[in-house]
Model the fold of this input.
Amino acid sequence: MKKVNINNFKKTLSKFPTGITVVCVKNNNKIYGKTVNSFNSLSLNPPMVLFSLGNRSSSINQFSKAKFLSINILSSKQKKLSDNFASSEPKLNMINFIEGKNKTSIIPGCIANLECKIIDKIKKGDHLIFVCKIIELQSDDKLKPLIYFNSKYF
Ligand SMILES: Cc1cc2nc3c(=O)[nH]c(=O)nc-3n(C[C@H](O)[C@H](O)[C@H](O)COP(=O)(O)O)c2cc1C
Done:
C-alpha cells in the first residue's frame, strides 16, 4: 500500500468502472448541464440518488439554486454528449430537450432518464453532494450504456 496523493487517487479510482450521466438544471429559461460519473443510488424508500459536483465548477451556482433537475444516463451512442457537457461552454442547440413534469430538461436517446427534486446539498471536501428524490423516470431495454473505465469510454 502507498500513501495517497492526487495522482494515485485519480488513477486508483479510474479502476472503478462507472456509467456516465449528464445532469441538467434550468434557471431563467437557460439550461446548464454537466457530465458526471459520481452518480449513485442512495435509497429505495423513498427513492433517492446522489451525485457530487466540484465546488469550483462553472455551473455550481446554477445547480445550487435549482429545485429540480434531470439526470440523463448516457447510452453507448452518446459519447459526444459526454465530451460536450464536460466542457465549460457546452453546445445546447444540437439537443432537442424534452420538458419534464417540473420544467426540467430531459435529454432524448438516453438509456435512462430521471426527473428529481433536490432535497439536500452537503458540502464535503472540494465537492457539493446533491441528494435527489426521484419524481419520474424511464429506461430503454434496447440500448447499451456508455461505460467509463481507466479514463476511457467503452
Ligand atoms: C467521464 C467524466 C465524469 C465526470 N464526473 C464528474 C463528477 O462526478 N463531478 C464533477 O464535479 N465533475 C465531473 N466531471 C467533470 C465535469 O464534467 C467538468 O469537466 C468540470 O466540472 C469542469 O468544467 P466546469 O468548470 O465548466 O464545470 C466529469 C468529467 C468526465 C469526462
